[in-house]
């Protein structure tokens, strides 16, 4: 007879999901109530307000899609693009390529702006594409490219879009709650994220927010959105501000308890403090990695503190190291994707996982795994370098 599944206690330091706070896990076990229960409707309003805080927006249409970040991405594209439209799509990693897929599946044309993996999106190339394609109605880019650990200059890219009268679709799956993100101040129009990265919630929810400009575009559509489930005109009736909600789908009630709890935790810490914490632990980790003789794959100015892309030394077996970390230390780090497969590791310091204890654990474990590969290093130097960095912050 099949028995219940009891997973081991891992430390999740890959590209996501990240470690989940015990408070969030406990919230999942609370009694399930109906998705149209007045108390749940009140909870929905609180979630909306907390998401507005996280996104730094006053957008009325701010809500969690009842599906993972990929559905949030699709919701933005299918609502803002129709057959025959043109979108400028920036690609400097895997997820810019997924944006292209969404554009083409809408029957629209994708004008690609491509940059090297590990480099940020080049605003000069974007400006040239906007100039050469006045028919474009959307500019789409990834703020924090999960496949490479690279940040792009979202504020500048949004400004270019405004100057050319196009709407912005922005992927913030890995940036929300980890680095500066100001939806209203920057002028982004359709922004999507995921629950399992810096928010440290369970996977399966995609926070999204749409600007008044985007809502106006949606309401002016000549044809129905190709996805019934992701049609924002229908979803608005369920997540709208009126006391009476129109049934659209059965929301994942307990998962939304978890999202609410993780957003409460973020509010308690304060967004600026959370961003500072990610940066602090990132610098300690980098100090330790460099003391081991390892190098980072992304230039310092564009590195994501929550997702560290590390070059794998020659002669070191990628899969064997990651397997040893998982088997011997219950520690998960991520492999490189696409063009960087086998060339980089992706070490996450996201949300609840962004802690000094995890930095030290990772450096100790990685040192052991690299020694087993025959990689020459100075034993204990990595932890010492990270500890010295932490001590420099306290002045002790």
UniProtKB/TrEMBL annotation:
<feature type="domain" description="Aminotransferase class V">
    <location>
        <begin position="39"/>
        <end position="318"/>
    </location>
</feature>
<keyword id="KW-0808">Transferase</keyword>
<comment type="similarity">
    <text>Belongs to the class-V pyridoxal-phosphate-dependent aminotransferase family.</text>
</comment>
<feature type="binding site">
    <location>
        <position position="346"/>
    </location>
    <ligand>
        <name>substrate</name>
    </ligand>
</feature>
<protein>
    <submittedName>
        <fullName>Alanine-glyoxylate aminotransferase apoenzyme</fullName>
        <ecNumber>2.6.1.44</ecNumber>
        <ecNumber>2.6.1.45</ecNumber>
        <ecNumber>2.6.1.51</ecNumber>
    </submittedName>
</protein>
<dbReference type="InterPro" id="IPR015424">
    <property type="entry name" value="PyrdxlP-dep_Trfase"/>
</dbReference>
<dbReference type="InterPro" id="IPR015422">
    <property type="entry name" value="PyrdxlP-dep_Trfase_small"/>
</dbReference>
<dbReference type="GO" id="GO:0019265">
    <property type="term" value="P:glycine biosynthetic process, by transamination of glyoxylate"/>
</dbReference>
<dbReference type="GO" id="GO:0050281">
    <property type="term" value="F:L-serine-glyoxylate transaminase activity"/>
</dbReference>
<dbReference type="GO" id="GO:0008453">
    <property type="term" value="F:alanine-glyoxylate transaminase activity"/>
</dbReference>
<dbReference type="Pfam" id="PF00266">
    <property type="entry name" value="Aminotran_5"/>
</dbReference>
<feature type="modified residue" description="N6-(pyridoxal phosphate)lysine">
    <location>
        <position position="197"/>
    </location>
</feature>
<dbReference type="GO" id="GO:0004760">
    <property type="term" value="F:L-serine-pyruvate transaminase activity"/>
</dbReference>
<dbReference type="InterPro" id="IPR015421">
    <property type="entry name" value="PyrdxlP-dep_Trfase_major"/>
</dbReference>
<dbReference type="InterPro" id="IPR000192">
    <property type="entry name" value="Aminotrans_V_dom"/>
</dbReference>
<keyword id="KW-0032">Aminotransferase</keyword>
<keyword id="KW-0663">Pyridoxal phosphate</keyword>
<dbReference type="InterPro" id="IPR024169">
    <property type="entry name" value="SP_NH2Trfase/AEP_transaminase"/>
</dbReference>
